[in-house]
Amino acid sequence: MTVFHSLALSVLLASLIPVPATAQVTPDSIPLPDSAQEVPDAVDLDTIRAGRFDNGKMWTFEYPPTDYLRETYEIEADAAWFERARLGALRIPGCSASFVSPNGLVMTNHHCAREFVVQVSRDGEDLLDNGFYAASLEEEREVTDFEADQLLEVFDVTPEVEAALEGIADPGARSDAREAIEEEIQERLAAERGGEEAGIEVETIALWNGARTSAYVFRRYENVRLVFAPELQIGFFGGDADNFTYPRYNLDFSFFRIYGDDGRPLETEHYFPWSEDGVEEGDAVFIVGNPGGTSRLQTMAELEFRRAVQDRALLDFLSSRVEALEDFQEASPEDAEEEDVTNDIFGLENSLKARQGILGGLFDPVLMARRADSERAFREALAADSSLQAEYGGLFDRMADVQRRKAEMADLFGAFAVFGNPDFTAATILRGIWALQMLNARAQGAPAEVLTELRARFDSVPDQPEELQIQLMEARFDDMATHLGATNPSVSGILLGRTPEEAARAIVGASVLADSAAAAAAVDAGTVGISDPAVGLMQWFLPAFGEFQSRISPLGDEESDLAARLGQARFAVYGTSMPPDATFSLRIADGVVKSYDYNGTTAPTHTTFFGLYDHYYSYGADSPWTLPERWENPPEGLDLWTPMNFISTNDIVGGNSGSPVLNAELEIVGVVFDGNIESLPGEFIYVDTRNRAISVDARGILEALDDVYDADRIVMELTTGRLFETEEEADRARR
User: Fold this and answer.
1) Residue 472 neighbours by CB under 8 Å, 6+ apart
2) Which of 197, 478, 479, 679 is placed for a possible disulfide with 675 were both Cys, Cβ 3.0 to 4.6 Å?
């Protein structure tokens, strides 16, 4: 067997995992949002037309919608306004955030802070359940692996990228050339500004699938400390049952502080001051954050492929991994607590529910009719221009052909869904792959630098508890058996007549590669060979996976190239009037505080603390709507009429969590934390009559900080802008 290629491509599989073409996927076979498939008798689908903003309102800062905001909201959003909005916002790991004081105070969601709350917990503490408040500057706790990126500058580098791609026809070669020129641009711009030593990071962002390319220059802050986080039960009130629903009663917020090189709180010129008045129904609001990703530019052929196979397979994958983690948690509760598995399960359940809503939207005939009408109009616009038609007219058929060819290897997609992701792949398998590569490389006389690189990859595989490895390996073997069939040579060679669980327990139990220390010692001693069960497993595992990689790689390049050319066609027709898909880069989304109809009734624009207690008493103490101890008996000063959560029509998706919600004066009126269940199809279409962003009201945050947590130090900083080093200092200032 030759040296196996890198696993880098396997990360790509997270978005490409259909089930076998023989699977019968129908609306009745999957859990969908209420009324997702219902079409009123009076509706003629042939008359359905696309809406003006079906592609959304996630506006970029390099192409600001100045005229649109003036016409729609009568506000003068000039260059200075957009600069303030840009510089007050931050991107943090997986989420968004913002500066909310001139002293480096940063606000985001509680669910964006969970892993860091666990990280700073000391022996005997349970800060996730009990909450955390640093009553003095000295008590703020340093977190690691936290990066806050502030967007300083944006450059259009499209001409430079296009020049580097000119004359290259092969999709794979174009992809390589794009990667090379983008890396060159990033290195040059970073070096000109002082590079990593100056805290400068540069990222190239492809907009409209590459029709335009921007270079984003960030100031990265890494000296960060946790200041405040409420209890999990109040930050995630209602749990998964309430996730993506409304009305809600969550205090899903937290505070960090960024420190400067001098060890003192960072002086931040640009921040969002706290609003005194909040917002009411009909008010315009603006959300500035980093939406993670949308697919609103996909063709109908791509959406239909997803509906038929891909998204259902992702549901199956997520369901099986939730089950695997829950089985691990039950079998090894102490190890599960150490691995923070509860938080991992929350994340998977969130993804599972989101994917159910997206798939429900793909089965919604009205939404799909709107998307079809949008594509029809796009095709007609191309046909009306002979030069555009000549250049781009055949792309739709070619993209449809790619989807057909993807479906032909649906069994391989299902068998190796998301393989290589260390969160979902048994460490023993990953070490087995790298161990075999090292053996083959030595046998072939590979240079020392190759062996060093392979060893580094082997050593970088993170440790996992034995039971977790067994559960993850069993799930992978089950995927292979389900999608490839019991008689497939790879499957039969792995299982040897055993169940997936029996095979996993035998391999993990007998392999020296199950433990990182033992694995490293064995490699050093030269005792790891094909006789090790994990290495021997590879002779059956890698041929099937290698076949998949060799077939999907060119298809992926072709699909990306076609999507880029379709993006160019769309930009040629519509320009910047249609925002590009989300790319986890900074956007501003406009909207209004507005109700909507649901479940036979009308949603209130705001909820209050009264509703929090109504849910607590209605559902009972042993439900997802139980309250932390300090909340069970509200303090005398707590005003239960205070707005707690509110809804607005802003266009958001995952990644926007923690984004500031601002009024026209760019003051904080809330922090967004979720969308309603009806907004989940927003991954591929935005409909303002359905989509609602759900935010924690700024007034509710202050009320809780002041009357429940006695966090005067934060309250005073938010309302005055002054830094108070101790609670006593803040108390004196209030008096």
Assistant:
1) 321, 324, 424, 425, 426, 464
2) 679
Q: What is the DSSP string of 189-232?
A: HHHHTTGGGGTEEEEEEEEGGGTEEEEEEEEEE--EEEEEE--H
User: What global pTM score does this model have?
Assistant: 0.90
Tell me if the bond preceding 27 is cis, omega within 30° of 0: no
The answer to whether residues 672 and 661 touch, using CB atoms and an 8 Å cutoff, is yes
Q: Is 616 helix (H, G, I), strand (E, B) or coil?
A: helix
On whether the CB atoms of residues 217 and 86 are closer than 8 A, the answer is no
Relative to beta strand 141-143, strand 601-602 is unpaired
pLDDT one-digit tens code per residue, 610-653: 999 999 999 998 899 999 999 999 999 999 999 999 999 999 99
Yes or no: say if 258 and 59 are a contact pair by the CB < 8 Å rule: no
φ, ψ of residue 192 in degrees (nearest 5): -65, -20
Would you put residue 429 in left (φ > 0), alpha (ψ -120 to 50) or beta? alpha
What does the alpha-carbon distance between residue 303 and residue 307 come to, in Å, rounded to a whole number?
6
How far does CA 699 lie from the centroid of its chain? 28
Check if the beta carbon of residue 306 is closer than 8 Å to that of residue 296: no
Q: Are strands 141-143 and 224-229 parallel, antiparallel or unpaired?
A: antiparallel
Contact 257, 103 (CB under 8 A): yes
* Dihedrals phi, psi of 108, to nearest 5 degrees: -150, -170
Tokens at residue 531, please? 């006789």
Per-residue pLDDT reduced to its tens digit, 573-599: 999 999 999 999 999 999 999 999 999
Residue pair 233/628 in contact by the 8 Å Cβ criterion: yes
Residue 285 and residue 659: Cα distance in Å, rounded? 12
Q: What share of the chain is helix, strand, coil (3-state, %, to 5)?
A: 50, 15, 35
* Cβ contact 142:121 at 8 Å: no
Find out whether 625 and 238 touch, Cβ atoms under 8 Å.
yes
The pair of structure tokens assigned to 443 is: 């046998």
CA–centroid distance for 418 within its chain = 15
Distance CA 257, CA 147 (A): 12
CB–CB of 592/284 below 8 Å? yes
